[in-house]
Amino acid sequence: MSQTVEILFLGSGTSAGIPMIGCACEVCRSPDPRDKRFRPSVLISNHDTKVLIDSTPEVRLQCVTHGIDHIDAIVYTHAHADHIMGLDDLRRFNALRGGPLDLWADDDTHAALNRCFGYAFVEPDPELKVYRPHMNWRRIDGRFQIGSLPFQPVTLIHGKQPIKGFRIGNLAYCTDTSHIPEQSYEDLRGLDVLILDALQHKPHATHFSLSQAVEAATRVGAKMTYFTHIAHQMMHELTNQTLPPNMQLGYDGLRVSARLS
Q: What is the 3 state secondary structure string of the chain?
């Protein structure tokens, strides 16, 4: 049995995506493919289990780009538009698997999903042959298991809103973060890989700035940290040159592995 877990960055950008509509800045015009950023989402996998975290507006393009033709479940961090609005495209996975898909979310996130995509949580009428998503809600209220992957929720603060990060073995995914509570620092001890929000250089009300993210990552002490949810103020190569050797900007298509146990 594989004792490693892999994370694939499907998107590493902020809510507007990079390049942004109507912007001609240096990053939005950059020829470096690492400066092209879909909205933030990842695929967590090992040899027998694949789990999508969040469904961005580009989820179809993300899956086609990386040849993802199967997932075992989807897990949500929170219900902001850049993290949920691709849910309808997950109907293709229903068709490929010939049945419903488990959707893991806390109560608040599920309530928002149900307002936007209520039709996805209703048992389909087989006589109608309607092509739509079919989700089984699984409540996040503590640790949970999907196939061979153990998920430990980690509380993060996004502005004033508590949201979910996730630790899977010695890897943790912590997007959309402006504050890490003390208990969550304890939950993040001993990581091989940390993925952490770092929006831009200047302070922001609901996201870590790069300097704040470096400070938090230093305190967590993971062997390697990759930053995500990146805005267009930070060019990939130039920014990486300013970072400590064990910290880098993530980018779409990056694959990183960590110990599962």
A: CCCEEEEEEEECECCCCECCCCCCCCCCCCCCHHHCECCCEEEEECCCCEEEECCCCCHHHHHHHCCCCCCCEEECCCCCHHHHCCHHHHHHHHHHHCCCEEEEECHHHHHHHHHHHHHHHCCCCCCCCCCCCCEEEEECCCCEEECCEEEEEEEEEECCEEEEEEEECCEEEECCCCECCHHHHHHCCCCCEEEEECCCCCCCCCCCCHHHHHHHHHHHCCCEEEEECECCCCCHHHHHCCCCCCEEECCCCCEEEEECC
